[in-house]
From TrEMBL:
This is Ankyrin repeat-containing domain. The lineage of its organism: Eukaryota, Sar, Stramenopiles, Oomycota, Peronosporomycetes. It comes from the Eukaryota. SUPFAM superfamilies: Ankyrin repeat (SSF48403). It comes from Phytophthora palmivora. InterPro entries: Ankyrin_rpt, Ankyrin_rpt-contain_sf, SecEffector_AnkRepeat.
């Protein structure tokens, strides 16, 4: 990056530890079109956010909301606070959602106490996905935040067993069949085994575990259970789930019963 001769002159003349250096250097900064309020906020450059906002008070209304969202997402609480105090555009629910996603609990708490936008189900879903258990717990107890099955599903993908256990004990969304397959695919054996023991009904699901596996490319169920013996319990439970279907689905259920039996034997014959 080229350095302006003016900046070099200032740095050579003053002690680099002097607070005055930043102020003087800022006076020579090229505020070209490559810098706007959102980019400065995203990078956490509070002094640049202040300078841009004061120099061009009417220029950045269209991106100021995104500026606070971005500052929250990347953990720049001082920027969030300054924008809240000195600008009127505010933020969106993305601010708390993305702060939660990245584990910035202090920002989540500040937004909850000082703003009214709140969050969406993405806050807990994202925080769980990336293993931020303290954020998940705080949102649960203080914001009454919503969530979806993606919280447990994606936590399983990334191997966050402690998060999964807490969600299972304290939330009602549970997981989908994807959670187990996600854990298997990612090599999280401890998560997969825990799900089989504690979330059997969710893992089997309405579709049936064997059919679900086949739709995900696991045609040879016998080979899969040989590699992961703990899955046999779900395979064996599949027929029990199927017999609970409504009578009008009996024809489909019979087809699935025959198809499941063939899959258990490792056959790939197409039933006619």
């Amino acid at each position: 990056m080229d350095i302006s001769p003016a900046v070099i002159a200032v740095c050579n003349r003053f002690d680099a530890d002097n607070d005055l250096v930043l102020e003087i250097v800022n006076a020579f900064v090229d505020l070209s079109s490559k810098w706007n309020l959102m980019r400065a906020a995203l990078a956490g450059h509070l002094h640049l956010v202040q300078r841009l906002s004061r120099r061009y008070p009417n220029k950045f209304q269209h991106c100021c909301q995104e500026a606070m969202d971005s500052a929250a997402e990347f953990g720049h609480l001082d920027v969030v606070q300054w924008l809240h105090t000195n600008r009127h555009e505010g933020c969106s629910t993305d601010a708390m959602d993305m702060a939660a996603c990245n584990g910035h609990l202090e920002i989540v708490q500040w937004l909850h106490e000082n703003r009214t936008e709140g969050c969406t189900s993405n806050a807990i879903d994202f925080a769980a996905q990336y293993g931020h258990l303290k954020v998940v717990q705080w949102l649960h107890y203080h914001c009454k935040a919503q969530a979806t099955h993606y919280a447990m599903d994606n936590a399983a993908t990334y191997g966050h067993l402690e998060v999964i256990q807490w969600l299972h004990a304290h939330r009602v969304e549970r997981c989908s069949q994807s959670a187990l397959v996600n854990a298997i695919n990612a090599g999280h054996e401890d998560v997969a085994k825990w799900l089989v023991i504690h979330c059997k009904s969710e893992c089997v699901g309405k579709m049936g575990f064997v059919e679900y596996l086949a739709r995900r490319g696991y045609w040879d169920v016998a080979a899969l259970t040989a590699k992961h013996p703990y899955l046999q319990e779900l395979v064996d439970a599949d027929e029990i789930v199927l017999t609970d279907d409504d009578a009008r689905e009996m024809h489909e259920r019979e087809f699935l019963r025959l198809w499941n039996a063939a899959m258990r034997r490792g056959e790939r014959t197409v039933l006619q």
